[in-house]
Amino acid sequence: xxxxxxxxxxxxxxxxxxxxxxxxxxxxxxxxxxxxxxxxxxxxxxxxxxxxxxxxxxxxxxxxxxxxxxxxxxxxxxxxxxxxxxxxxxxxxxxxxxxxxxxxxxxxxxxxxxxxxxxxxxxxxxxxxxxxxxx
Length: 135
Hints:
mainly alpha; about 0% strand; 6 helices
């Protein structure tokens, strides 16, 4: 494992990695281990959602997969950006309106789609995280 590829990467990639990695661990904690509704769960939840928002926005500036795409360098993986932002907004709205079912669904969807699915694609051969982890 080497961080060299990340250290040489564009600033958007560095910001994306610096926010998505803690978001993964915080999200895992929030979903699996935290006491739902507790003051700490709510406070950490805001941090998680802020990290996911920054992660999604930073992703808009990453064009490594299809730099010459007719859609401003965006590739199919960028579909996770609006899905993540919608999930963040839906989770906040669900929590603020005490609609716990909507909140839970939005949080799980954001975690699975924005972190697990999109994150697993980052580890495919030729992608930066594959190089970081597997050399």
